[in-house]
Specification:
The protein is of the alpha/beta class. It has a domain of 36 residues. It contains 8 helices and 6 strands; from the N terminus they run βααβααβαβααββα. A 6-stranded parallel β-sheet has the order 3-4-2-1-5-6, sandwiched between helices. Helix 5 links the parallel strand 3 and strand 4. Helix 1 crosses helix 2 and helix 4 runs parallel beside helix 5. The protein binds ligand V0D. The site of ligand V0D has 20 residues, from helix 2, strand 2, helix 4, helix 5 and strand 4.
């Protein structure tokens, strides 16, 4: 007579293939790569990919709300993106206004609060105005924090913190002994929000590209070849499931 040895059975405890309501990552950060390539593959201009990417943002925000994620950080524009052709940069910097014109009402309905990280003042006035309006409008919402990384670069963020701290030390507003990791974190754009639990990068590259270097120290990484405009609710669930399976795995040791 044969008997299955429980701890060798196929359905081991880390293999559960359905998403649990427990252990949803608090904070998910996404590098939304592959928009230009998506368009070029179809013989379309790159901006068509960015436009399609905007509608994917809307879908994934809704999924994050439904999954009860607390913070969703999206890498929309890096400090390196200024090096792209002028026309492409100009197009991209109009997307926040376009996005908000279409989706702000549904963000309000979903109780979503908009925030940003990055060098906001260096963005064109029209971009700042559209985003500031949405931040103000959603500031009392208590649901998902939708955090757009706009003109964000992590080394710049860290250097800015170091310079501010150095000034405070020099002016004797801080003493060196009180400077620890928690204090340092308060000088970053992300002050007040927890570190990401899960980082997703679409578009097939497996690198951080100057994104949240300090904040990602303990984060689970999940990469997919899917291009951002092809990213769906199902793929998002797949990433959440992978996260939960990893958690269960070392929860078991
Ligand atoms: C282009 C894929 C939404 C990534 C998504 C300015 C590249 C579409 C926003 C947005 C961008 C930002 C702030 C806000 C509301 C919406 C956005 C940029 C690029 C860079 F308050 N999509 N999106 N911003 N893309």
């Amino acid at each position: 007579m044969s008997m299955k040895i429980p701890f060798l059975s196929k359905q081991s405890k880390e293999e559960s293939d359905s998403l649990s309501e427990e252990n949803i990552p608090n904070h998910v950060a996404i590098i939304m790569d592959g928009n230009g390539r998506w368009a070029q593959k179809r013989g379309l201009p790159r901006f068509a990919g960015h436009k399609e990417g905007v509608s994917t943002v809307n879908k994934i925000v809704k999924t994050a709300v439904r999954a009860n994620v607390k913070v969703l950080t999206l890498y929309t524009f890096s400090t390196e993106n200024w090096k792209r052709p002028k026309q492409e940069v100009e197009y991209i910097l109009k997307l926040p206004k376009e996005f908000l014109h279409v989706y702000l009402p549904s963000l309000m309905e979903n109780n979503v609060r908009i925030q940003t990280i990055g060098d906001f003042q260096a963005l064109p006035d029209h971009t700042q105005e559209a985003v500031s309006y949405a931040i103000e409008k959603t500031k009392n919402n208590t649901g998902l924090i939708l955090n757009f990384a706009l003109n964000y670069g992590s080394r710049h963020e860290i250097l800015k913190a170091v310079k501010q701290i150095a000034t405070e030390l020099k002016e004797e507003n801080m003493d060196m002994d009180s400077l620890d990791e928690d204090t340092f974190s308060k000088y970053l754009y992300t002050k007040g929000v927890s570190d990401p639990d899960l980082l997703i990068r679409t578009g097939g590259e497996c690198r951080l590209s100057n994104f949240m270097l300090w904040q990602l120290a303990y984060t689970e990484f999940w990469f997919t070849d899917k291009l951002w405009p092809e990213f769906t609710e199902d793929i998002f669930y797949e990433a959440l499931l992978a996260y939960q399976q990893r958690k269960r795995r070392y929860g078991g040791i």
